[in-house]
Amino acid sequence: MKLYCLSGHPTLPCNVLKFKSTTIMLDCGLDTTAALYFLPLPLVHSPRLSKLPGWVSKDGAINLEKELKECSGRVFVDSQPEFCLPEKELLDLSTIDVILISNYHCMMALPYITEHTGFTGTVYATEPTLQIGRLLMEELVTFMERVPKAHAATCWKNKEIQRLLPGPLKDAVDVWSWRKCYSMQEVNSALSKVQLVGYSQKVELFGAVQVTPLSSGYSLGSSNWIIQSHYEKVSYVSGSSLLTTHPQPMEQSSLKNSDVLILTGLTQIPTANPDGMLGEFCSNLAMTIRAGGNVLVPCYSSGVIYDLLECLYQFMDSANLGTTPFYFISPVANSSLEFSQIFAEWLCQNKQSKVYLPEPPFPHAELIQTNKLKHYPSIHGDFSSEFRQPCVVFTGHPSLRFGDVVHFMELWGKSGLNTIIFTEPDFSYLDALAPYQPLAMKCVYCPIDTRLNFHQVSKLLKDIQPLHVVCPEPYTQPPPAQPHRSDLMLELQPPPMAYRRCSVLGLPFRRRYERIHLLPELAKSLVPAEIKPGVSVATVSAVLQSKDNKHVLQPVPKPAPVPPSKKRKRVIEEPPEVLNPKPLLSGAVPLEPFLATLHKNGIMEVRVEETADGHILHLQAEDVLIQLEEDGTHIICDNNEPLRTALRDLVLRFLQKL
Amino acid sequence: MPDIKVTPLGAGQDVGRSCILVSIGGKNIMLDCGMHMGFNDDRRFPDFSYITQNGRLTEFLDCVIISHFHLDHCGALPYMSEMVGYDGPIYMTHPTKAICPILLEDFRKITVDKKGETNFFTSQMIKDCMKKVVPLNLHQTVQVDEELEIKAYYAGHVLGAAMFQIKVGLESVVYTGDYNMTPDRHLGAAWIDKCRPDILISESTYATTIRDSKRCRERDFLKKVHETVERGGKVLIPVFALGRAQELCILLETFWERMNLKAPIYFSTGLTEKANHYYKLFITWTNQKIRKTFVQRNMFEFKHIKAFDRTYADNPGPMVVFATPGMLHAGQSLQIFKKWAGNEKNMVIMPGYCVQGTVGHKILNGQKKLEIEGRATLDVKLQVEYMSFSAHADAKGIMQLIRMAEPRNMLLVHGEAKKMEFLKDKIEQEFSISCYMPANGETTTIVTNPSVPVDISLNLLKREMALGGPLPDAKRPRTMHGTLIMKDNSLRLVSPEQALKELGLSEHQLRFTCRVQLHDPHSDTDTLGRIYTHLKSVLKSYSIQHVPDGTVIVESIVIKVTSSAEEPNLKVILLSWSYQDEELGSFLSTLLKKGLPS
């Protein structure tokens, strides 16, 4: 059993598990942080960005002014932003049987994996994961295709050239594996391979392995997975939360008794408390609005935004800001808001009970109805004529490299009245802001990451007691910025097995048993004998049938009766069929009872001779020797086959057959 | 011998008060707990005294499962749980849990407030009953206890309708509730995987019907409504508030839009808007088309259909009214019917099944004079039309489901005996499986013959599979030999060697030695060589070795040759074998006695 680690990113994992005869990919996260090396894609022509000077090395030897631009003291790639894919060379991706998706953030690389690699398997995901994942992909594609770039920059990737570039570009890794965004056609084709599953549904894979998604409490439809056979159990924990936000709470007890637990997707900001951050978010927002400024919230179109809107729904009236408009701008804003209302089954209890009334589970329905929240597909069209300031704008992409957010950065960045509040934890906000410097706008960093922190996870592991834990390497040491915080790492006994990108781990499993079924007729024919108190054994002679990884034992078919014909004589002459093994024998043949048995069977004259290891019996009339010892019996009998077989059966009476 | 017992307390050779008891693997499950619309007395509810004469049901039932919100499937639930007494879990899907209490409350109001019956369940009882409900999702495997698990499948029929698989160990039963095998305007088709249950308990409402295509029926329906409205008549469509109503509303709404019709369409009772809201929130339970487009256009927001007020019934001119309940047995639909029955210009369209005893059933049977609540007779002059829109599987659909699930036995409920008989024959013929149709209170026992799961040591299994080769030879099956160790409820199959080791037993060697005398005028070595050649030609599929130290070894049988100095031509062949090679040893000793070929 092996684990191939195709991504080193702890929250955007992509691992492949070889378990029994199956090859299972666990998530396929797309690392979008590579986009930070690129220039923003403005929706509206930006004089500032278009006039940036090209980059030429100091000695003038390398001229990449078409590809690289200097902006605010850094060098950026002027091309369509690219993403870092899971490793494609570590194993043949066409051999993957299934892909299990744990949440919509961890499936963004799916089209790269399922298309053009020869993948022919099935992807399993819950319905909200599929629907919202589709929206996020659609959004990404729209963001990119709306502002096409004529040329793709590739020269800078040349190893010799990259070496000479200024940082951080110089240190970017695996740049040759970076790819630009997929097309909508590829998205549709990839998602057509998804098979929907429900929580606690048991899905059989090839009869060998059973996989089951469990609620993980992190986002709508997010799941952890159990991968098990009758005897081995692997738990895959990815993006789980114990906080009470909108999704169904995390199911923990089913993770118990795991042989191996693969742990990914812990909080990226272990030092920030989500509740505290939410408070800070609200107070900063209120402060800016009161001062007449606008608030920009770069965010994903699903997830924490629902909680932010719910929080603001309660907060705004109490803060006397009830008239401030909220705008949610995204190609999928409307769909995201609508979809959130129809997944009652996947929500926490108190949202679920609203649906029984029937009322929409999220209060943003009311915000929309009362015109407090408006949503638009983009800044073009209705938005430009309807928008009032001061206001709060939720829009993507949180990397600040593409999407409508780029426009608001250009528009509002110059005024100190406005505030940008970062809530998504995926990007370093300083790196995100780099191409917009110098910036007059206030920046507030309130990352809200509801995933498990180290304290919660160690408590969880104590409860569920896995035999072995596998996790990304960063979890086994304190964060680089806080080397003394030994509380911000996993300390376990035995220590966790750490992986990084391209690791191949052998998992500590010893498979010893497999499930087999005895057909009822066979089971009925067995004759159990008690060997010790409470322990019985029965000898099983049967025919094994294995089909689709299921094993069945059938009774041995009776040989067809030989027709009474002339051939009969020859049949005896034929050598016996290739051996059907005889049972092993155990026990000992006791002297006195054996003599009595011989006597009963008409063998009277027996001379007994004691030896070092037992006795030798001389059957004088028959001229047969039987050597009886503790662990063996030897019958020496010439020329009298019927007698030999009779003696054999008498001896067998005293022995146990296994 | 393990068996499964099925006893209908209701819906046995009948439609109404569905309630089926199943005993499987020591667990008792109640499937549905419905009421009968055709009765107003004790026969209204299933006879729970069958389970126990006195006392509560909790200790006799492991769980109760409700398939969907129709009252003939859940109408007796508060009575059963609160008045007879049951505190265990009640499973249903989320939409059923949402809608079921509303219909129960409606039903209670009609019975208690309008008819003045006492000794009926109260609003509080409905609430208390619903607290015992555990909602579940499609395909979720719910572990009721250590052994009993249940799983819901999509059934179509109405919003939230589900089929249930009930499984204990290797035995399983599937109960369909009511289902529909063709997608309609708002719901999808039922689906189940090839789960091969021991028994498939299916409804059989339309056991003998094979309905024409849905499109034709829809066109027919629209044509009839259109004609009546054109000639200034009024159309009454008795429906249940949720379900068929929404489908027909979608149908009329689009037709009105397309034809630009002006006649008003009304929907009675305040439930409409609320009902549509349920459809909006549970849109994932509707069909693919509605689900796909719901963001752009929600099919359950109607432009042409407005709320009905009772005074409208006397308005002149044409109109279409959807009114509840669907079988004309009480409430608004019956009131409107009484008002309009006398005019032959009007029409009533019954879009669903009507149980015996209801006004709906009577007029469908052509009864022209009705006695209503013991008062004056009512002349039925308006046109009565029946359109089977109720979403049940027809005979074709039932057969289709059997093909999907591949059950070992079939059991029919929720249908009329005569029609069941017909379908039963058809099923037995086509699938060669037994089909049962027990009456209420009658128990069907089916002997199951489950195989016995055992843990086999991987070493033994792998060895066997390697020896058996990739393709098993059907003519010469290989016998595998192992030892089954039974200890503390565990069954393990291991190789005999491992069993000896584990049990701390030592092996007992049983050996045989046999001397065969033979005249052969050669040297001992040559004789042995001749034996080797002879055996080689006879024993083709055995391993035979000629070892230089003067022995021939066949498998593990040792053969040596000696001769005495006095008689060099008289050879003594010594054969020695262990019990494991008994057959071959015996064969060889017999063979060599016959001498060697010259």
Automatic annotation (TrEMBL), chain A:
Residues 305-433 form the Beta-Casp domain. It is found in: Cytoplasm; Nucleus. It comes from the Eukaryota. CDD domains: Int9-like_MBL-fold. Gene3D superfamilies: 3.40.50.10890, Ribonuclease Z/Hydroxyacylglutathione hydrolase-like. The keyword NAD does not apply. One of its GO terms (biological process) is snRNA 3'-end processing. Keywords: Cytoplasm, Nucleus. One of its GO terms (cellular component) is INTAC complex. InterPro entries: Beta_Casp (IPR022712), Integrator_9su (IPR027074), IntS9-like_C (IPR048660), Metallo-B-lactamas (IPR001279), RibonucZ/Hydroxyglut_hydro (IPR036866). PANTHER family: INTEGRATOR COMPLEX SUBUNIT 9. Belongs to the metallo-beta-lactamase superfamily. RNA-metabolizing metallo-beta-lactamase-like family. INTS9 subfamily. This is Integrator complex subunit 9. It comes from Culter alburnus. The lineage of its organism: Eukaryota, Metazoa, Chordata, Craniata, Vertebrata.
Automatic annotation (TrEMBL), chain B:
Residues 245-363 form the Beta-Casp domain. GO terms for molecular function: hydrolase activity; metal ion binding; RNA endonuclease activity. Keywords: Cytoplasm, Hydrolase, Metal-binding, Nucleus, Zinc. Residues 16-233 form the Metallo-beta-lactamase domain. SMART domains: Beta-Casp, Lactamase_B. Its cofactor is Zn(2+). Transmembrane segments: none annotated. The keyword Metal-binding applies. It is found in: Cytoplasm; Nucleus. It holds the Pfam family RMMBL. Its main location: cytoplasm. GO terms for biological process: snRNA processing. GO terms for cellular component: cytoplasm; nucleus. Belongs to the metallo-beta-lactamase superfamily. RNA-metabolizing metallo-beta-lactamase-like family. INTS11 subfamily. This is Integrator complex subunit 11.
